[in-house]
Amino acid sequence: MLPAMVVTLFVKQAIYLHDAATTRLWGLSALDDQALAWGLMGVTDALVHGVAFLTLVMQHGASRAADDGASGVARPALGGRGRAADNGRGRMTTMPASRISLATKAALWLGSGMAGAVLFWAVQVSTGGPTIPDFMGQQIADAGGYPAGFAPAIGWAVHLGVSLSYALLFGVIVLVLATTRFPAQVAISFAVAVALGWVTAMVAPPAISVTISVFSGQGWPSELFPLNTELGLPFWNHVGFFLLNWLLQALGPRLLRVGAARSAVGP
Length: 267
What we know:
Layout: H1 2-10, H2 17-20, H3 30-70, E1 73-74, E2 77-78, E3 84-85, E4 94-95, H4 102-126, H5 132-144, H6 151-176, H7 182-215, H8 233-265
Helix pairs in contact: 1-3, 3-4, 4-6, 4-8, 5-6, 5-7, 6-8, 7-8
């Protein structure tokens, strides 16, 4: 489905000749109707498979959580003076393992990617400049000859796709660092977040030119926008995006584990 959708969405001629000869609705051309139809089918297909995937992930996470709870380790909950607190019942408090489930990690990745995309856009709006969803959508629609009404959806689809990809990249790095001690993990992931913000801000202009050309059906561009080497708003906006991901994906699991441990101990 996906390869057919991509090919049909960006071709420059009608594939279904019978459909091209029929009466057009809402003033859409045969190409616009074809692109809209395959776009809608691709979205619904992605939603169905995405929901199924998330369901499996959540079931797996619930199963792991149940296994962890069943094999909880008895640990003394220390009282205010370092004594083991038995809550007045003469027994130790049993604390479940504090492992973060795969579903929670997936939720942190999705949340950080979406929140980062909104933050990036909000900063551009607050500074009075053009926003990347508006710019990308308009450029792709104009260069590809797509209906102007599709421009906002195209721009946000590209923006969210890039944001989720960046968040996934950072999430993989956090997973790789998970075997290190927490202080080292925090320091290294923070440095990586700043470095990724700098690198992505630098390569953003040529990446934008490639994205516009490819998604408008023009192929690889003959000339790329130059690299951005200035420490202006784009740089700080990219760094802010990855620092938000650092807060949610690097520090978030630790905060969740601490909260779960305190809930298990009780007052």
